[in-house]
Design brief:
With about 375 residues, this protein is α/β, with parallel strands linked by helices. It folds into two domains: about 170 residues, FAD/NAD(P)-binding domain; about 140 residues, 2-Layer Sandwich (D-Amino Acid Oxidase, Chain A, domain 2). It is built from nine helices and 18 strands. The strands form three sheets. Strands 1, 2, 8, 9, 10, 11, 17 and 18 form an eight-stranded mixed beta sheet that branches. The chain has an eight-stranded mixed beta sheet with strand order 5-6-4-13-14-15-12-16. It is globular and about 65 Å long. The protein binds glycine. The site of glycine has 8 residues, from loops.
């Protein structure tokens, strides 16, 4: 077990692992510290790579980063699969967002107008055209938005590939939770784990999702601004021979959002709630009911599928819902968290940009708008 590294990575989700892998490829000795449970946001995530379908008013800087992330995904996947010797289920399937009825259609018309105004590649389709693409959609679906460039990846295979690639690049792992950052003369010099293991590092990166703010020894504005945003999410299983969907389908049903991400083998990942409920990860019957009912309105065949998993994950949300990436005010301490709804999508750009910072100290223009210091005036 290493007691000293160039970089101590706190967190072994997609952000931590991808950054550890990229930093190790550049010759740094990296240790990832993670309890190894399946409670992180990465394990729960559906794997939507959907910057266009999920675009939100007022988040244009995030959109620029997200579009660049989507552009880089294919080459990232190719490199990762070669390094890991396994595949990650990256599917260029596109995403169709449909309305359940006329009122929901009005909502989507506005969304389409916003997307077109931003110059995004979207196409408005009438109900019949939606069903030509996805024949299992309900006959009442009145229309929707096709985003041909919004794709998906299988998150759990992605995590496994990142673990393998990181290990083969020499990244060490310590299976424990981090209790606190060790600070000497105002500089981060390592971490201590709950099990009492002290690991020394030239640089410490906090990539522990919404738990980042709970790590002792961190200046409050470096991380305590990250909050958990609960997402309850389901996994359904159908027939590989007769999949219900061929692309990701999002839907607005009575003003609520639901999405279904189809895997190649007939499974569907259905999500997700978005709740400000602290660190609660209870799966509630009502949330499961709402998700399934809403989905069944636009995709009645979903009723026939087997419900194989229901869980709640905690997205890390920052005050502006954009990530916090880069150095903090404390020398030697960096953060990579706050990726909110976009952690899987943003992992490659975060990893590459942070590997630059770790090796050269240079913060690229791509991540400069996401400096943790932008919240300097905010109450911690
Ligand atoms: N991006 C999907 C979600 O966060 O639920």
């Amino acid at each position: 077990m290493p007691s000293s590294s160039d970089v101590v990575m706190v967190g072994g989700g997609v952000i931590g692992l991808a950054t550890a892998w990229r930093a190790a490829e550049r010759g740094l000795r990296v240790t990832v510290v993670d309890p190894g449970s399946d409670e992180g946001a990465s394990w729960a995530a559906a794997g939507m790579l959907a910057p266009i379908s999920e675009v939100t008013y007022g988040e244009e800087p995030l959109l620029r980063l997200s579009l660049e992330a989507a552009r880089r995904y294919p080459s990232f996947v190719a490199e990762l699969e070669a390094a890991a010797g396994t595949t990650v289920g990256y599917r260029r399937c596109g995403t169709l967002t449909v309305a359940a009825d006329g009122r929901d259609r009005a909502h989507l018309v506005e969304r389409h107008r916003h997307q077109v105004g931003l110059g995004l590649a979207v196409e408005w389709l009438g109900g019949r055209a939606c069903r030509e693409l996805e024949p299992m959609l309900a006959p009442g679906v009145p229309g929707g938005i096709l985003a041909p460039d919004d794709h998906q990846v299988e998150t759990r295979r992605l995590l496994e590939a990142l673990r393998r690639a990181a290990a083969s690049a020499g990244v060490a792992t310590v299976a424990d939770a981090v209790e606190g950052v060790r600070v000497e003369s105002g500089r981060a010099v390592g971490v201590v784990t709950r099990g009492g293991i002290a690991i020394t590092g030239g640089q410490v990166v906090l990539a522990a999702g919404c738990w980042t703010g709970r790590i002792a020894g961190v200046p409050p504005r470096a991380s305590a601004l990250v909050r958990p945003v609960k997402g309850q999410i389901l996994r359904l299983r159908g027939s590989a021979g007769a999949p219900l969907l061929s692309r990701t389908v999002c839907a607005v049903v009575a003003g609520r959002f639901v999405y279904a991400v189809p895997r190649g083998d007939g499974r569907l990942v259905v999500g997700a709630t978005s709740e400000e409920r602290g660190y609660d990860t209870t799966v509630e019957a009502g949330a499961v009911l709402d998700l399934l009912q809403d989905l069944a309105v636009v995709l009645p065949g979903a009723r026939e599928l087997e419900l194989v998993e229901a869980r709640a994950g905690l997205r890390p949300g920052s005050p502006d819902n954009a990530p916090m990436i880069g150095p903090t005010a404390m020398p030697g301490l960096l953060v990579a968290t706050g990726h909110h709804r976009n952690g899987i999508l943003l992992a490659p750009v975060t990893a590459d940009a942070l590997a630059d910072v770790l090796t050269t100290g240079v913060v690229s223009t791509l991540i400069a708008p996401f400096r943790p210091a932008r919240f300097a005036g905010a109450p911690a």
